[in-house]
């Protein structure tokens, strides 16, 4: 590895130490459905967001709830203390499309219709309110 690449990698690692996030990759749900759930909790207090996700009847909400719990525990582990109610906020939730499985479905008159089974990647950041204002 070259010197410039090593320096930029070290800078990236240092900046990651102050970020508290969790990633969920290759979720077999369309990104559009997942974004509906992500929009519900963006900017919300973390424990309130957990309640919203728990009582949502969308299938994607259960996966995002588990991801949010992971992000909270990552924050607790890096700060070596328990998170209190009203302290943590969901700062960034991004949903990106992942690989797409392409299948064929029989159609009339010998044709075939393409079926695209989409999947996505979700990245969720949590942080304290005073860090957000800086």
Decide which structural class fits the backbone: alpha+beta
Low-confidence stretches: none
- Which whole number gives the mean pLDDT? 93
Number of helices in the DSSP assignment: 5
Distance between the termini: 35 Å
Shape summary: flat
SS elements, strand count: 5
Strand order of the largest sheet: 1-5-2
Helix content: 40-55%
What would CATH call the homologous superfamily? Ribosomal protein L22/L17
CATH architecture assignment name: Alpha-Beta Complex
CATH class: Alpha Beta
How many structurally independent domains?
A: 1
Q: What does the radius of gyration come to?
A: 19 Å
CATH third-tier fold name = Ribosomal Protein L22, Chain A
The biggest beta sheet reads:
3 strands, antiparallel
Strand content: 25-35%
Compact summary:
By secondary structure, the chain is of the alpha+beta class. 45% of the residues lie in helices and 29% in strands.
Give an overview in words.
The protein has one domain: Ribosomal Protein L22, Chain A (Alpha-Beta Complex), CATH 3.90.470.10. Helices cover 45% and strands 29% of the residues. Strand 3 (101-106) and strand 4 (112-117) form a beta hairpin. It has 5 helices and 5 strands. The strands form 2 sheets. The chain has a 3-stranded antiparallel sheet. A two-stranded antiparallel sheet has the order 3-4. The chain is an alpha+beta fold and 134 residues long. The mean pLDDT is 93.
